[in-house]
């Protein structure tokens, strides 16, 4: 790919996802690198979440496919029943019957469309709540991890101070003698 095409691809956000490589030797001010067990735990949690999401999507796709097949069978059965009903009628009765049936189906369709709209709104609301819950959980887990890290640092500092304080009285006694 020529350089101009690379620039175009990057400018419009397609075809390439360039992320800067992490700098190995640099640490942010005041931040410590996460230990390998913590990193592997976070990675495993993310993998587990992605696997659950993928399994849920597969289940939804299977459910949709099964419902589509059932709908096709129902349509064929309804058409067959309708043909049997109108086969024994004269033309005026057929027209009346089909008009009545189409009116019923139109009313059913409108009712189902309203239900569908309500269900979509409810689904959107539930999805927003789910996303909000996940975001809050993620923030909570992050805060918990930060607090645990700070607690470990405080314990290390406390232990260092204890060791230093134990060494100080000995040094002052030696200076007095």
TrEMBL record:
One of its GO terms (molecular function) is syntaxin binding. Belongs to the taxilin family. Residues 1-61, 112-142, 155-177 are annotated as: Disordered. This is Uncharacterized protein. It comes from Ustilaginoidea virens (Rice false smut fungus). Residues 155-167 have a biased composition (Basic and acidic residues). Pfam families: Taxilin (PF09728). Transmembrane segments: none annotated.
């Amino acid at each position: 790919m020529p350089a101009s095409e690379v620039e175009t691809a990057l400018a419009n956000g397609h075809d390439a996802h360039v992320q800067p490589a992490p700098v190995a030797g640099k640490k942010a001010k005041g931040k410590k690198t996460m230990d390998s067990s913590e990193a592997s735990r976070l990675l495993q949690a993310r993998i587990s979440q992605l696997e659950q999401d993928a399994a849920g999507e597969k289940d939804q796709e299977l459910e949709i496919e099964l419902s589509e097949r059932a709908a096709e069978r129902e349509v064929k059965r309804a058409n067959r029943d309708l043909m049997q009903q109108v086969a024994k009628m004269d033309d005026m009765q057929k027209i009346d019957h089909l008009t009545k049936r189409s009116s019923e189906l139109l009313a059913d369709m409108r009712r189902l469309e309203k239900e569908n709209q309500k269900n979509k709104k409810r689904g959107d609301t539930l999805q927003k709540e789910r996303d909000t819950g996940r975001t809050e959980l993620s923030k909570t887990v992050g805060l918990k991890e930060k607090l645990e890290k700070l607690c470990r640092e405080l314990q290390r500092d406390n232990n260092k101070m204890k060791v230093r304080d134990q060494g100080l009285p000995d040094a002052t006694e030696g200076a007095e003698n």
